[in-house]
Model the fold of this input.
Amino acid sequence: MSLSEEIKQEVDKRRTFAIIAHPDAGKTTLTEKLLLFGGAIRLAGSVKARKANRHATSDWMEIEKQRGISVTSSVMQFDYAGHRVNILDTPGHQDFSEDTYRTLTAADSAVMLIDVAKGVEAQTIKLFQVCRQRGIPIFTFINKLDREGKGPFDLMEELEQVLGIRSVPMNWPIGSGRELCGVYDRMKGQVELFQGKDHTTIEVKKVEDYNDPIIREMAGDYLTDQLISDLELLDVAGDPFDYEKVRAGELTPIFFGSAVNNFGVQTFLDNFLQLAPKPGAKVSESGPVDPTTDKFSGYVFKIQANMNPAHRDRIAFLRICSGRFERGMSVKHVRNGKTIKLSQPQQFLAQDRDIVDVAYPGDIIGLFDPGIFRIGDSLSQGKDIVYNELPTFSPEIFAKVSIKNALKQKQYQKGIDQLTEEGTIQVFYSASFNDTILGVVGQLQFEVFQYRMQAEYGVDVQLHPMTFQFARWIVDDNIDPSKFRINSTLVKDKKDNYVALFENEYAMRTAMEKNPTTKFLEVAP
Ligand code: G4P
Done:
């Protein structure tokens, strides 16, 4: 087999996706069930145990140990039904950061997990928006169907109202909560029964359609009548399944189930793997790059510092975009023009790190980083390829930073420069007061910043929270700073661009209305 045929075959097999959810929706539980189907973990509960006992693993970053969280959210890989599946873990609540957003750029599709009782929650909205902007397909799993929750039509309405996306249910619940009887699979024309006292027995029955008497026998008149009227309404008024719209991220297929009971998970996985895209062409400065070309290329989307403090090592996470990766291969580090040897690449399975010998587009590898990588760096074989996959994100939390010991000014500046370059935080300077202001999307970024300033630069910094909530880059041929003093605080970024910081949406809207010719950009121009 030629190299390009081999790469094509491997690309066809791959599905690389992220699960986006608000904390507690059941992401850990779902991930674990998916891994179990792939035979990737032997014991149920091991992912969960990992979540609870993270501090037991001795070599993670100190900050993680203190909080029992994982900043090192990584990648889980398993084989299932002829596919090679890569799940990118996006960290939850407290460890939410720009890294979370960046990780989404490495995914080819997303699974949006929603708690049936809570509906669309805050963190889901943010993550959804990033996926939406990238135009990747989004699949919805409504979880905890064994509990009382919102009705399926209400949830569809919520997706449309809150997220602006239309949906097409792939299956439909028969009853709910304590009365949950099963789901009707609209695509396959079968019912999956949810049975037994412990609600874990699952039986699949082929039926003619939703009018099949088998359903009435099993679910009784009340639930069957409800099901029939719901499905008739869906057939008439619902969106038909449209593959092109799904692929464009304009229509989300919905699956109902219960992760903890392993109900509906396998059906979901089977359908998802069928419908989700394989790794496609990625955009570079010189145009799209076909993943099946012979030459290897990829980009760093995340750098994890101090995974092992004893060695002060860092891991750069690289998404492979084209060609075949081989251990020990030499590639060009495009930004600095140097050729480097990739000798100790790692792959991730739950928390065990394995050395990887070969990898293909869609795979994520961890590269040992002695300090040569920055977020966004491209590596390539053959001609230089520079990927443009990583946008910056508009900060939402701000703090003024000051140094405790003025004698350490030099290290302080060096630390700020390097950590902003690495993408740990964004920095702004106020013209009038000489203040240094940091902006982040998640509180954790401040903690990582503080910790790393101390650990790596020997500088103690103090952070003073500020009440701003929005940053907008001001673009105008002729900026009159005085115009922005009323509703906002005007600062500059590292490249001397003007940025207005607002305390609330009202102030921001007013400023926009008063300056109709000015552009207010969410990210740096
Ligand atoms: P997360 O990673 O998204 O934060 O959520 P996680 O999987 O940890 O799940 C959060 C809670 O929701 C867990 O309960 C979990 O067992 C429960 N859960 C997940 N899927 C389902 C489901 O389909 N139905 C029901 N009823 N519950 C579900 P917990 O009480 O926090 O933990 P545990 O005591 O169950 O381990």
